[in-house]
């Protein structure tokens, strides 16, 4: 009984391991990119501390290094991160047991990866409390900051022309997280449909709005399929 209770007390830490392993190379690549783009180690790490949005940070580094004005930068990052509204809406139904004072703090730490892992855990056991979220989120956050710092340190010693080939890290982790959640033909169909729709819309819609639109349409079709299946 004591052993089982101890295991339950570190569920968030255990669930964070896939994210930690994914964040190490991605944060490292981000840190290198930041210093190779002319930013100081402090600036690179500060983005991880206060922005904490992997893909948005890569975009911010690229835009800032090209001299983009601050309004364009803010609007671009806002559009890129619009998908977090969907994540928060999805998680809110599982956070009703959590004291409301924790919600603003925990909301800052929601990322693609922490959402994917937490929603998978919560669908299996929705009795998790704020301790689970704090463990999962802080382990992931700390790893991202540390890997960013190490990458920035390493990048400061690299020649600007050196390419260490870590571009694959971000899409590879997204694919792995998607595969964790796919079970059954309906989810396979929705995943493929949403992916193809997003690719098609990226040539029509500006920024990353294609991701939001395809996610909403995919979720709507998934809901309709569930209703049709239950009524048939």
TrEMBL record:
Organism domain of life:
Bacteria
**GO cellular component terms listed in the entry, alphabetical order:** plasma membrane
UniProtKB keywords: Cell membrane, Membrane, Transmembrane, Transmembrane helix, Transport
Predominant location category? membrane
What topology does it adopt in the membrane?
Multi-pass membrane protein
Per UniProt, subcellular location reads as: Cell membrane
- Record GO biological process: L-valine transmembrane transport
Does the keyword section mention Transmembrane?
A: yes
Q: Where are the transmembrane segments?
A: 15-33, 45-64, 70-87, 132-154, 160-180, 211-229
Protein family per UniProt:
Belongs to the AzlC family.
Please give the name of this protein: Branched-chain amino acid permease
Tell me what organism the protein belongs to. Thermoanaerobacterium thermosaccharolyticum
């Amino acid at each position: 009984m004591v052993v089982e209770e101890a295991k339950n007390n570190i569920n968030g830490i255990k669930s964070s391991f896939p994210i930690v392993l994914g964040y190490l190379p991605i944060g490292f690549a981000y840190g290198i990119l930041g210093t190779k783009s002319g930013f100081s180690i402090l600036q690179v790490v500060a983005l991880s501390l206060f922005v904490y949005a992997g893909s948005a940070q890569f975009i911010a580094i690229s835009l800032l290094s090209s001299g983009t004005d601050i309004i364009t930068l803010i609007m671009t990052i806002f559009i890129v991160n619009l998908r977090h509204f969907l994540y928060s809406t999805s998680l809110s139904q599982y956070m009703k047991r959590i004291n409301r004072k924790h919600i603003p703090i925990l909301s800052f730490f929601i990322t693609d990866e922490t959402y994917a892992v937490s929603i998978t855990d919560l669908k299996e056991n929705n009795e998790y409390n704020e301790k689970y979220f704090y463990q999962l989120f802080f382990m992931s956050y700390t790893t991202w900051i540390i890997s960013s710092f190490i990458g920035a340190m390493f990048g400061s010693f690299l020649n600007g022309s050196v390419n260490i080939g870590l571009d694959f890290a971000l899409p590879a982790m997204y694919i792995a997280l998607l595969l964790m959640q796919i079970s059954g033909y309906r989810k396979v169909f929705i995943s493929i449909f949403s992916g193809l729709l997003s690719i098609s819309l990226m040539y029509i819609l500006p920024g990353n709005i294609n991701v939001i639109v395809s996610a909403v349409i995919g979720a709507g079709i998934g809901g309709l399929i569930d209703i049709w299946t239950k009524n048939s």
